[in-house]
Design brief:
Shape: globular
Strand order of the largest sheet: 1-4-3-2-5-6
Helix content: 25-40%
Structural class: alpha/beta
Order of helices and strands: EHEHEHEHHHHEHEHHHEHEE
Bound molecules: pantoate
Number of strands: 9
């Protein structure tokens, strides 16, 4: 595997490649990331991964400085997956001057849910992803469904800018007890780790109620939030949304059996976890 940090060198290395499959990451790779690499392999060749902890998508009080950086271990994992190039730019490589041009998603998608609790997050994500795409020029790129809203925003961005990159969605990788794998799980204490699967259990309970015809969405959300609070979580939201645009479903949408997803974000101790479940 070639490890490349400069944009020029990356372009030289990938010149003429028409079927590149790309998996952008922020490192600290776990089995979930590796499943993205495996899915990428089914859709293209060569595989290019990136590791870049993108300052633009972290708020001033978020964990940019303490975000886990495990470069050597990541390299070994990617080598085993047969990744051809690891693009690992420094901040100077990717942002040699302040990144003044940015991609701002529409407010009705970018400022809801995660965007409401993490202002500017999706502008930071969209900007870096567009820039990474411009460096790698992939035919396909793989994103996990765990970051459901991110996936939708990137997909819409690729469509609106007519990018020549197809966005592929990968299912969420879960531990045996249901907890969605995330680099931030490493922040959990032993007791918190034991409690953490309750988030997914709660999503399942909401989904189950909907499937069995309980359609008072507001009531379901309230009950789920109360359950987590009672167990000492601090939920930001548990919300039933339409899969098509992440807006709340109207009575008409529900009557017409619109496809739904339950999305959630909640803090357990100091760790903020997100998850979702399609109904
Ligand atoms: O999902 C992530 O790890 C990041 O948001 C991404 C897509 C690599 C952009 O920094």
């Amino acid at each position: 595997m070639k490890i490349i940090s400069s944009i020029e060198e990356l372009r030289d290395q990938l010149r003429g490649q028409l079927r590149t499959a790309f998996v952008p990451t922020m490192g600290n790779l776990h089995e979930g990331h590796l499943s993205l690499m495996r899915l990428a392999k089914k859709h293209g060749d060569p595989i290019v991964a990136s590791i870049f902890v993108n300052r633009l998508q972290f708020g001033p009080n978020e964990d940019f400085d303490k975000y886990p950086r495990t470069f050597q271990a990541d390299v070994e994992k990617l080598e085993k997956e047969g990744v051809y190039v690891l693009f690992a730019p420094t901040e100077k490589d990717l942002y040699p001057e302040p990144q003044e041009y940015r991609v701002r998603p529409p407010d009705d998608l970018g400022n809801i849910l995660e965007g409401e609790f993490r202002p500017g997050f999706f502008t930071g994500v969209s900007t870096v992803v567009l820039k990474l795409f411009s460096c790698v020029q992939p035919r396909v790129a793989v994103f996990g469904k765990k970051d459901y809203q991110q996936l939708m925003i990137i997909r819409n961005m690729a469509k609106q800018f007519a990018l020549p990159t197809e966005i592929i969605a990968a299912d969420t990788w879960r531990a045996d007890d249901g907890l969605a794998l995330s680099s931030r799980n490493g922040y959990l204490s032993e007791a918190e780790r034991a409690e953490a699967p309750v988030l997914y259990q709660t999503l399942n309970e909401v989904a189950q109620e909907i499937r069995s015809g309980h359609l008072d969405i507001f009531e379901l959300e309230k009950k789920a939030m109360a359950k987590l609070s009672h167990r000492h979580w601090k939920p930001d939201y548990i919300s039933v949304r339409k899969r098509s645009d992440l807006q709340p479903p109207s009575a008409g949408d529900i009557a017409q059996k619109a496809e739904l997803v339950v999305v959630a974000a909640a803090k357990l101790g100091n760790t903020r976890l997100i998850d979702n479940l399609e109904v």
